[in-house]
Amino acid sequence: MYTLGIETSCDETSCAVTKNCEVISNITISSLKEHKKYGGVIPEIATRAHLKNINRVFELALKTANITKKKIDLIAVTNRPGLIGSLVVGVNFAKAISLALKKPLIGINHLHAHFFAPYLDYNNKIKFPFLSLVVSGGHTEIYQVKSFNEIKTLGRTRDDACGEVFDKIAKAYHLGYPGGPVIDKLFNDAYKKEFLFKCGKIGFDLSFSGIKTALMYKKIQMEKNGEFNLKMKIKLVSSFQYSALETIIKTTLEAVNKFKIYRVACGGGVLANQYLRERLLEIEKQTKISFLISPKKYTGDNAAMVAGLGFYLYNSLGVTHNLRMKPEAN
Ligand SMILES: Nc1ncnc2c1ncn2[C@@H]1O[C@H](COP(=O)(O)OP(=O)(O)OP(=O)(O)O)[C@@H](O)[C@H]1O
Ligand SMILES: [Mg+2]
Known about the structure:
By secondary structure, this protein is an alpha/beta fold. The protein folds into two domains: 2-118 and 299-317, 2-Layer Sandwich (Nucleotidyltransferase, domain 5); 126-294, 2-Layer Sandwich (Nucleotidyltransferase, domain 5), CATH 3.30.420. It has helices spanning 32-35, 43-65, 84-101, 110-116, 162-172, 179-186, 209-224, 230-259, 274-286, 304-317; strands at residues 2-7, 12-19, 22-30, 74-80, 105-109, 130-135, 140-147, 150-156, 200-202, 205-207, 263-267, 290-293. The chain has a five-stranded mixed sheet, sandwiched between helices. A five-stranded mixed sheet has the order 8-7-6-11-12, with helices on both faces. It has a two-stranded antiparallel ribbon with strand order 9-10. Strand 11 (263-267), helix 9 (274-286) and strand 12 (290-293) form a beta-alpha-beta unit. It is globular, with a radius of gyration of 20 Å. The structure holds adenosine-5'-triphosphate (ATP) and magnesium ion.
């Protein structure tokens, strides 16, 4: 069964084709460069880029998969959550294809797609229940997944998302955009405890705005003292990354122990982080917990995870939507 996946929730225009759960094409054009000078995504620019690119991305995804439109059996599109203007482009494109080809349509929750990524290409077998961890540019959430019909949010950030804070700190420190990959590269293990920053935590809920403010105050203080040089920035961001990621790991382990569920599916942009990936694998070796981590190529926004989850929901739960399906920003 061929599923066409469409993803336009933020600044990536992506179309993918999966054959059952195997990814046979996954094409993404990002408008990231156009947002760079602003240090964050500008919704209007993202929407216009989706409009410009979606048809080309779609054609390329089919060409790479070596199939014609007629071969498509199912259309899966991210319809929530995301930037409303961006979602509208993908959802309407998907509806048009569904109508023209007379093929079923399914609306996908982008966050569920992020934690479905480890199951693509049959890398892992789905076994319920499991916990899931999504750490991305807009969300930091821990779920209990009894089935894809029963997903309970155990905890989430009460303010900024983890990835967003990587981006904001890098912007304030003039390190570049997006901040996650830059800070990941600059991270130096020797400096991880140089500053003892703390993140907020209430039960399984998290808070990153306090650590962000602390990093901003440090910048002002260091600038006054003439100490805000690259080495100091590396010390500061290394201590930040260590604290933020270790807080997420600690909270996830608490959820594992409370619910006695020893499988954790992890996805979202921040899962590309080398330190985070290594720490999860290290914990896996020392405990009976299995961390199913999204392959790096599927951590950021991509349509492969949308197609894969669409295929799964359609086949195992018979989920479909009609043309009245709407994009939902939150
Ligand atoms: N190596 C890395 N280390 C840490 N963070 C990273 C890394 N690579 C990317 N990120 C962060 O991941 C985020 C982008 O992830 P993603 O594309 O999943 O977010 P989003 O789609 O904008 O948000 P959401 O999925 O919540 O809607 C950015 O904040 C980016 O800085
Ligand atoms: Mg995302």
